[in-house]
Amino acid sequence: MDQNVITNIQENFMSLSKAQKIIAEYIINHYDKAAFMTAAAIGNQLNVSESTVVRFANVLGYTGYKELQRDLQELIRNKLTTVQRISLSDELSKSSEFIDKVMGKDMENMKKTMLEINEPNFNLAVNSIIEAENIFIIGLRSSTFLAGYLNFYLNFIFDNVKLIQPSANDIFEQLAKIKPSDVLICITYPRYSKRTLDALDYVNTKGSKIITFTDSSLSPAYSRSDISLIAKSEMLSFVDSLVAPMSLINTFILAIAAKRREDITPYFEELESIWEKYGTYNESSNTKNN
């Protein structure tokens, strides 16, 4: 559900039963705890039945409690401190299936991203980049390496790409010359960088188009952007799962390259000659014997 789950509870509060109102008040006041409690645990906490908790979720428009719980987790992800994130993995670290659970979460994020990707938005974003006079890229904190990866490959395709550097001069100085004919690509995942959001607010005053890679329509960057491409990054601990975002960015690069194939082929042929002449890559076929 796109609507904030807390707002949804507040708007439906008067129509709830007495027991459901008890659940509603608990979630509103303790949503950071409730997000990681099962329906049975909430029932035990409030002396109501598990089925009452499930019916409460149904009244709010959810198919079940787990769906409500996912929305609560989505709501608070950007508010969790590193210490709180680490605590989420306490039980996981005791599991004998550690690798399966962590990598399984990455696979789950990939599947959700593939199922929920908005293809018309994706194609619109690709065309917007191709038509842009200049392309600016920003990604701070944990999104820095994603921004760098995108910048590395887009520079093979275009001559007008600029990566906003967090360690260089102020990001607003780097964005000062952005025009309405330019496009800013923003990459931001929880915990969302305030500096990134400030940059989006500034670019909106300049009339430039903003394309954002983020994790949800609840992301604060979503409402600040013209086009948002969603890739799931649900985490099990203090490390975000950025497998799906990387895959979506990779798909984005390849889609742009496919449309620009005739323009970039001669350039890559020249690059191959340079790489071969100066030994950029190790072409040795020798392998270590076991």
From TrEMBL:
GO terms for molecular function: carbohydrate derivative binding; DNA binding; DNA-binding transcription factor activity. SUPFAM superfamilies: Homeodomain-like, SIS domain. Residues 125-262 form the SIS domain. The keyword Transcription regulation applies. CDD domains: SIS_RpiR (cd05013). Residues 3-79 form the HTH rpiR-type domain. GO terms for biological process: carbohydrate derivative metabolic process. Coiled coil: none annotated. Transmembrane segments: none annotated. This is MurR/RpiR family transcriptional regulator. It comes from Soehngenia longivitae.
